[in-house]
Structure prediction request, 444 residues.
Amino acid sequence: MKHRYLNGVTTLEYNIDKCVGCGKCTEVCPHGVFEMALGAKASVFQRDSCMECGACALNCPTGSIEVDAGVGCAAAITLGWLRGKEPSCGCGGSECC
Amino acid sequence: MSEKSNCCNTTDDCCRECAVKTVGSSLSLSDVLGAWKVRWGIGRMDYSVAPGLYALGEPDNSSPVFVSANYKLTFDTLRKNLDGLNCWLLILDTNGINVWCAAGKGTFGTDELIHRIEASELSKFVSHKKLVLPQLGAPGISAHEVKRHSGFDVNYGPVRASDIKEYVNAGYKTTKEMRTVQFSLWDRLVLTPMELIPALKCSLPIFGVMLIANQFAATPFDKTDIVAHAGAVAAGTVLTPALLPYIPGKAFSIKGWLLGLGCTASILGLSGKLKKESRLLSAGYLLLFPAISAFLAMNFTGASTYTSPSGVKREVERALPLIVAAGAAGAALTLGAHLFRRGRAAR
Prediction:
């Protein structure tokens, strides 16, 4: 059974004009968000499956993809608010989410 | 694990950086016990191997190079799944954190990979320029930057180490299935001890409050209260992860709240506390305990494999105020009912 999270929230932005069709985004995405279209360019196939890990943006050689990457962790986000800092999952300390 | 120093034998520092360590593919009893311990949170933040280059089997200069993290659980999973292959393992220093988390933090990253290629003098051991990385390392690695600075080609292998042999046999090609991250019942269950144990630790002060309140409560807290609390914790930390895809709703807090509600109502029903004279107490329970389950379930987003920061932010913004309000109201009602209203038992 496929897991689904909230729809319409991802910050993923893709500029197809810059795409050179290398397919790296389809290789690195763990949720099959991108697919290679027939025109030899990538297309966003399952936008709402994006978990904003940032792998596609970092591995796109032409900078066609932008995403506000981070950790999807409630504890990190809540603690970030309480401390007035960026969310961080605290891995490396004594606690880890 | 023995060390054969191939490039220098002067100082310890130098050897730690560039000596090649040999390693086998079979796990010992202590490896298996170690894995079990970290799953239960024992010594979990201090379970690492030394970074650097490892020889598995009898690799030569044409053997493949697999890159991974220095979390021992990761390292052991990788070498177990490479049984029968002669290959090199290039282990990055991720502070003992797994590949995916470390990639998210950037410690399994472009700079560390480039540094480790140089420090281990990888080019002296292999004549090719091909690295195989776990796909989940990609959020920290920029393949084209690695190529530009080190000359090595980054090839993203499968998500799961158990698919590596199939990947190698297919000529270093992944299938869509190998590239997709799963979150099976077993994947979820192995994570639940690390949800349950911290939640139980946080519960100790609550039991303390019950104990103190009992000194002057009109209706003392009894085992139903403890069972109801334990049920709420279990619903949020174990049942919700286990049944995750089958519970209605998308937000984890809603899933946890639903199970917490079912659990609390069942316990109240069975204990016979859902009676007219304890309506106030029942209302308190039904506000408080599902809110606890919802909060704990929401924290499982951090362990899940598919929640985005934007999504979790939205969920926390909406759910947390409700959870806090329901929890506070429920706690006040529960405590008040115990302190000031005589229950049947006390009559």
User: Anything to note?
Assistant: Confidence is low (pLDDT under 50) at residues 1-17 of chain B. Chain B touches chain A through 52 residues (CB under 8 Å). The CA atoms of residues 210 and 221 of chain B lie 6 Å apart.
